[in-house]
Amino acid sequence: MENANNYQFNIQGKELTIQREFNGTLAQVWRAYTDSEILDLWWAPKPWKCNTKSQDFRVGGRWLYAMVGPENEEHWATFIYDQIENESLFSGKDAFTDSEGNENKDMPASHWKITFEGNVDNTIVRNYCSYESEDILQQFLDMGFKEGYESGMSNLDNLLKNGI
């Protein structure tokens, strides 16, 4: 487990837990994770960009987006929401797709539960990610998941500093 600057990254078996503290109110951080207009500003690691095609933030709804690279290459993904508790948690399936949201069964998928705990000025976000196997989790890590995720978190830090 790594623990620096209120950041923890822990792998245990086929589960990954990431905890991060942000200098922002619960309402600000919740909105940053659940509003596609704000997600598009920070979700992708630079120089990549996130472009939302659609978002229906409700149980059974989904977020369909592309990670767009510097050469305009697109990698599509979706998050299908299976649980939402306002300003507390949401969870769902994360998967690679085509531009229409059809899951790419040749690529690994995961289940995420994201919780939010806020006080006056700070919010702790915990990501619980589970994979079908340790090998699939390793495949995500080999694709640069950790580095990309950390880059996105830095992007969100910068947005919060600027008062989103």
Automatic annotation (TrEMBL):
It holds the Pfam family AHSA1. SUPFAM superfamilies: Bet v1-like. CDD domains: SRPBCC_CalC_Aha1-like. InterPro entries: ASHA1/2-like_C, START-like_dom_sf. Residues 26-160 form the Activator of Hsp90 ATPase homologue 1/2-like C-terminal domain. This is Activator of Hsp90 ATPase homologue 1/2-like C-terminal domain-containing protein. Belongs to the AHA1 family.
